[in-house]
Design goal:
α3 (53-61) links the parallel β1 (42-47) and β2. This protein has a four-stranded mixed sheet with strand order 1-2-4-3. The protein has helices at 8-18, 34-38, 53-61, 78-85, 95-101, 141-153, 159-162, 169-175, 189-199; strands at 42-47, 69-77, 104-112, 125-132. It is of the alpha+beta class. α6 crosses α9. It folds into three domains: 1-32, no CATH class; 39-132, Vaccinia Virus protein VP39 (Rossmann fold), CATH 3.40.50; 141-199, Orthogonal Bundle (Helicase, Ruva Protein, domain 3), CATH 1.10.8.100.
């Protein structure tokens, strides 16, 4: 899938060389129905545009589970890759970490120096490998998104302040024995799952 028309002639040469093995779709990856194109059990390999990389990742992580893909090997800006795999308590841990890790297993496969590109970008890149995991039962993706958006949107605030806008959230925090004076980045993935399940 390629949107940049400047790349189409070179890709056309590859398509001609590999005949039926390569299908070229000229268009926006955000609007492509990948399941219809690739079917189930596909492997996604992509050098993602940095401005839509996160949106594409979240698109492929949403919807029915298990997903249509078996693995994803994706290149991001290194800073984004670190957020995807970040653990609780780190500065990089946030909404993207939880959104990715609650139903998949991501890892950084390699970093790529800016000198590998022509022209070299201003940032270092990293390749992230993602495989689907079993989705926790009884968790609504919309509820999890609502909770993490509220909590990490005000990450400097304690949960008692950041989650008060989410109906029932503070009662669930108390029922689960989570200290409401903690901040969002201190909650483990399991605690986010339990909190989402309580509200789902």
């Amino acid at each position: 899938v390629e949107r940049d028309r400047r790349c189409i002639p070179a890709l056309d040469e590859l398509r001609a060389a590999f005949e039926e093995r390569l299908t070229l779709i000229e268009g926006d990856a955000l609007s492509v129905d990948e399941r219809a194109v690739a079917g189930a059990g596909a492997h996604v390999v992509a050098n993602l545009p940095y401005n839509v990389g996160t949106a594409l990742l979240l698109k492929w992580l949403s919807g029915d589970w298990p997903p249509w893909w078996r693995s994803m090997t994706l290149m991001f800006q290194k800073e984004v890759a670190e957020r995807i795999v970040a653990q609780p308590g780190s500065d990089a841990y946030g909404r993207l970490s939880v959104a990715t890790q609650w139903r998949s297993r991501p890892r950084i496969a390699m970093t790529i120096n800016r000198s590998a590109f022509v022209p070299p970008p201003r940032v270092t890149s990293a390749v992230v490998h993602v495989v689907p995991a079993e989705q926790p039962e009884g968790v609504s993706p919309k509820v999890l998104e609502q909770l993490t958006q509220a909590a990490f949107g005000q990450r400097r605030k304690m949960l008692r302040s950041s989650l008060k806008q989410v109906p029932g959230a503070l009662d669930a925090v108390a029922a689960l024995g989570i200290d409401a004076q903690r901040r969002a980045e201190t909650l483990s993935l399991d605690e986010w799952i339990k909190l989402s399940r309580a509200l789902s």
